[in-house]
Amino acid sequence: MDQFLQAVINGIMLGGFYAAMMLGFSVIWGVMGVINLAHGEFIMVGAYATWVLNKEFGWEPFYALAVVLPLMFVVGYIIQLVLINRIVDQPHLVSLLVTFGLAIIIANAMKLAYSADPRLTETGFAGAWELGNVTVPVTKTVILGVALVIMGSLWAFLHRTKTGKSIRAAAQNKQAARIVGIDIKKIYALTFGICIAITGAAGTLISPTQAVFPFMGPPLTLRAFAITALAGLGSIPGALMGGMVLGLVESLIGIYVSGIGTNLAIVSAFVLLVVVLVTRPQGLFGGLRPMEEAQPL
Amino acid sequence: MTVLADVAARPRGSTGRKIGLGLLLVFLVVLPLGTNIEGQTWVTNARLFQFTQMFMLITLASNWNLTGGFTGYVDFGHAVFFGLGAYGTGILMTQQHGIQWPFWAAVLGGAVVAAIFAVLVGFPTLRLKGPYFSIAMLGTFVAMREIIRVTKPVTGGGVGLTLPPYLNRALFYYLTFGLAVLVVSVMWWIRRSEFGSSLIAIREDEVGAEMRGIDTTLHKITAFAIAGFLSGIVGGMWAYQNTFIDPDVVFIESRTVELVMMTMLGGLGTVAGPVVGAATIYWLRDVVWAAFFDWHLIVEGALLIGIVLFVPTGIVGMLGDRSGTSLQRLWGRWLGSRDRPGAGPDPPRAAPPQPQGPQGDAGDEP
Amino acid sequence: MKQRWFNAFALMVVLTLVAAACGDDSDAGTEGQETTAAPATTAAPATTAAPATTAAGTTAAPAIAGTIRIGAAVSETGKYAREGKDTRQGYNLWADWVNEEYGGVNIGGDRYEVEIVMYDDEGDPDTAANLVEKLITEDQVDFLLGPYSSGLTMSTSAIAEKYGVVMVEGNGASETIFERGFKNIFAVLTPAGNYTQSALKLLSDQGAKTVVVAYEDTAFPTSVANGALKWAEEYGMEVLGVETYPKDVADVSAIMTKFRDMEPDVFVGGGHFNDALLFVRAAKELNFTPDAMVITVGPSNPKFVEEVGTDANYILGPTQWEGTMSWEDNWFGTAEDYYNRYSDKWGEAPTYQAAESTATALALMAAIEQAGTLDMDAVRQALFDLDIMTFYGPINFDDTGKNAAKPMGAIQIQDGVINVVAPVEAAVTDLQFPMAPWTAR
């Protein structure tokens, strides 16, 4: 029983991070129709930015968010203007290949800059709370908390502000949005900037618990894809549910399958992805709009 | 290189071009004999090995093009068939199960495994459209790598399998050369057959093809299985000449990406495209590696973006073979049946100035 | 529309030009590569050799009778770029030493200088195999030195075997390399199966009774883990659990949760550097405190302490070599002398990858001198017969080409300092045991 509780706690902590980590991916897809295969690389860049602030200037990693969020917003905004804008109205294959090329460039540029050595940041929020035989790690609790705050803020932004409503309008019907006077180009640049900022923040969140290295991106991108398939495009509650499902599945398999549990946990993400795609292409939880319609944009 | 591009450029040919192609083939056939010539250092076993790798890439890219280019299903996990072929061969050739198959039988066995897997996995995934199919195959690929890892008793797990070393470069040269010629011929034949026309009809308008009485599921799965089988053979040959396989050397993500890049550079959906693209990139890479060292992957990434944005029809397409497809057309067609206000890639038919005049979409030229 | 086609056409023209050029260039390209590697090695002819030998004093400057060409494909780019650099520097240090100080390899009284022909294998098995074939057939080198990593050694040793060219290596520890019956592969490093031997022996002497093992299921860590299981049994320790995980794993909480509930005395784990970081963080988070943690890759690297800080204390790790070890030879002197020589030459401290690379070349040289000829069969036999002591430790190859003589060292991080604690003949301090709780660091 204790072990089960521990597995559930591990799973929830992991799931919260997954949910925050994949949001940017899912919203960019939902709003702009661009499948960003460089997603994991943006997480990695955010993690390195945090690492630099932590090692060079002694900042607490979580406070580094104050720098990482605006920094990554600017990075995203510029990349959108220079590159992504050219592929927004193009078929998916174009966006897949272009962002894949971008991923290769980012990862290898970071390798040149920081070598392939794995890094970790040091946080003051360390240690663990003991509840009976169950341990609740402090760092991961803080990560979960920040992840929830990020998700809540994004939801509030999309639903309660004028700009947010424009973004949702653009996602649902570009033509109509244009007619009511929304500047689509500006909305896209803003969306991409915000999503990349959140994605970079996810990098900040994992930097104390997972090794940061230039080639950490692709598995994260694939997981983001798997959760998007579960969650539906751009759905924030869906993201939370999808992230939790994947986190719990990975954690439970990891603990209850002896010997090869951690290997199977990784397979499970992709098996889940394929099964969900084949059986419920619209996702399990709805979304900004159904996946079926997501094609044209 | 230019000879290749030239030959490839034209769909059917004038006598001069036929002679060019013939000379190229003769050159490639006699090349290995050069190792016997004293005093020259250009044709060596190392050089033959480079050609062997190039032939393998040509074959794989052609196979990928069958589903990706002809049928319009862009497979991001094609290397899974290569991997299954390699493992099938490796398992059958090692003695650990008390049986040791000869190489040729093991390669066929491995390829059959790959083809069966193609049918099994194609059945659900080929129902998916666009990026969903691409990503489902990528997921399949990653999952297969982990499955190979955990089925230790059969596959040797992460430690891998050691094959009996037999390193006859000339033999592998001829095997892969023969396979490449065979596969390109098969593709050429498919392209002109009714089967090929049906595949292209599926690419252009799947619902329409269905209504015209084409059994789309059967066609798609058949194409998928053929591609899987042929890539399985390449995997088996690779395993034997590398003498050793483990999940991390066999299941490399970049292998699939390379194929996509090569096919796109050469010309998606043309017979010659993958050949030209694979040859160009293989030799180009030699130069890029030498010139850029640390930067080569960054250069490759930039190259990929450049190709996609600026050369969407590929080399072959630009040189005038309009039977292929550009990205815009491939996806534009599929989306055509939907409401897609204002989302316009340029209407492809109006596109390029071309020397030979427009040809039939389905490639059934006179 | 027109603009786009113009763009496309321009790019096309450039591509065809490059493509057309590359047919001829491919050779020039690799040739260029060779020259970039060469300066360190070829720039050592008689003129530079002379001052060094006079510095040596008593011996008359020997005439150079010829050149021994040695080939190596070592990563300069790709995933092993870092370790490849150490390997290159280790090889080049030896070559420069032979040519400039030692006065050339002594073959029956004649002195031969050495030239190392190096290529970049990019960390790719196909490329490595191709380059080694090129070294043998085109460059016609006399002997081969190994690449970095077990995987690349697997694919290149098959080529060396095919041509019957001796390859001495120091950077492929996986046992599978030596299980293929090859007669031309020799490795100076302690094979992976013995990595944890010293540490486990030490811990069992301290009273540790139970062990758990977690390893990445790729070739090298699997060999290490199988060895750990064997040695644990040998020293009477009970194995409570064994877990595997895939390469580039991101979360090991599940493994650590399971292990915590088993309450073992000793944790043995690892595969790559990032796993080492993950294990430490996860153990701390979950409050998993065995009496000792042995992590196979990571702790001996100074960067490990840099990244995990005080949490690194008490952690044990195997090491092939440390500058503080007490080995000594007639060529480079003590391990510390080597350490200083390397630091002076390259401006950075030697890793054990660098030391074992130098030792690799040294073993080949010793065998050539003992054989007294460059004849391949004689040198191969001399390698099998070799029994020498070096700054890197004893070298004595068994029938499969493994170095059976060298014990693996074990280090422990004590107050942020890497100290050798085993084997006794090389140890500098005592083991700190058991491990203090995570909160008391």
Structure description:
The complex is a heterotrimer of chains A (297), B (366) and C (441). Chain A is an all-alpha fold and 297 residues long. Chain A has one domain (2-294): ABC transporter involved in vitamin B12 uptake, BtuC. Chain A has helices spanning 2-32, 39-57, 65-87, 92-114, 138-160, 162-172, 174-179, 184-206, 217-231, 236-256, 261-279; strands at 128-131, 134-137. In chain A, strand 1 and strand 2 form a beta hairpin. The longest helix of chain A has 31 residues, at 2-32. Chain B is mainly alpha-helical and 366 residues long. Chain B has one domain. In chain B, 69% of the residues lie in helices and 1% in strands. Chain B is built from 17 helices and 2 strands. The two termini of chain B are 29 Å apart. Mean pLDDT of chain B is 80; it is low at 1-11 and 331-366. Chain C is of the alpha/beta class. Helix content of chain C is 45%, strand content 18%. Chain C contains 14 helices and 15 strands. Chain C has helices at residues 2-37, 39-42, 46-56, 81-102, 125-137, 150-163, 197-205, 219-234, 253-262, 273-285, 302-308, 335-346, 352-371, 376-385, and strands at 64-73, 105-107, 110-119, 143-145, 167-169, 185-187, 210-216, 238-245, 266-270, 292-295, 316-319, 388-390, 393-395, 409-414, 417-422. The termini of chain C are far apart. Chains in contact: A-B, A-C, B-C. Chains B and C meet through helix 3, helix 6, helix 12, helix 14 and helix 15 of B and helix 1, helix 5, helix 6 and helix 8 of C.
Blueprint (SSEs and pairs):
The complex is a heterotrimer of chains A (297), B (366) and C (441).
Chain A: H1 2-32, H2 39-57, H3 65-87, H4 92-114, E1 128-131, E2 134-137, H5 138-160, H6 162-172, H7 174-179, H8 184-206, H9 217-231, H10 236-256, H11 261-279
Antiparallel strand pairs in A: 1-2
Chain B: H1 2-9, H2 15-30, H3 45-71, H4 79-93, H5 103-125, H6 130-150, H7 152-155, E1 161-162, H8 169-192, H9 194-204, H10 206-211, H11 216-242, E2 244-245, H12 247-250, H13 253-266, H14 272-292, H15 296-310, H16 314-318, H17 327-336
Antiparallel strand pairs in B: 1-2
Chain C: H1 2-37, H2 39-42, H3 46-56, E1 64-73, H4 81-102, E2 105-107, E3 110-119, H5 125-137, E4 143-145, H6 150-163, E5 167-169, E6 185-187, H7 197-205, E7 210-216, H8 219-234, E8 238-245, H9 253-262, E9 266-270, H10 273-285, E10 292-295, H11 302-308, E11 316-319, H12 335-346, H13 352-371, H14 376-385, E12 388-390, E13 393-395, E14 409-414, E15 417-422
Parallel strand pairs in C: 1-3, 1-4, 4-5, 5-6, 7-8, 7-9, 9-10
Antiparallel strand pairs in C: 2-3, 11-14, 12-13, 14-15
Helix pairs in contact in C: 3-4, 4-13, 5-6, 7-8, 13-14
